[in-house]
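To whoever is on call:

I kicked off a structure prediction for a single chain this morning and the downstream step that reads the tokens threw a length-mismatch warning. I double-checked the sequence; it's 155 residues and nothing unusual in it as far as I can see. Pasting both halves so you can look.
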Amino acid sequence: MRKAKPKKRYILPDPKFHDVLVTKFVNNLMYDGKKSIAYDIFYDACTLVEKKTSEPGVEVWKRALANISPSVEVRSRRVGGATFQVPTEVRPDRKVSLGIKWLINYSRKRGEKTMTEKLAAEIIAASKGEGSAVKKKDDTHRMAEANKAFSHFRF
């Protein structure tokens, strides 16, 4: 550690659901500082999810995030001349941020017309345990499982 750790920034809860996690998600969803548009996309996606599943949209979204968040990942570690993929536990804050990023990225890659529809479809798929974001989590876990032999290189 060469420098002092930066202070943790605390985020204000969102206006509709009063949830800090929603604000984090919207901050990641936002392009070019257009936060109000990002909020519109998220809230509209939640109402769309409510219509399709007849459950509260935020609850389905939280279940989807829980299904996507990885518990182990591989990190590159140089030992001698070789680079090993070492499986490590994921910190809770990183777990959430990885889940958020994967959900947004795979929503953007979907084929629906608007971002609201893409996000709603990916949330529904992830809450059921399917979809691209869940596949990404499974691939990450599979990589960690395959490289379990190198876990003694953990740092």
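Update from on-call: the warning came from a stale cache, not from the record. Cleared it. Sanity check on the structure: The radius of gyration is 18 Å.
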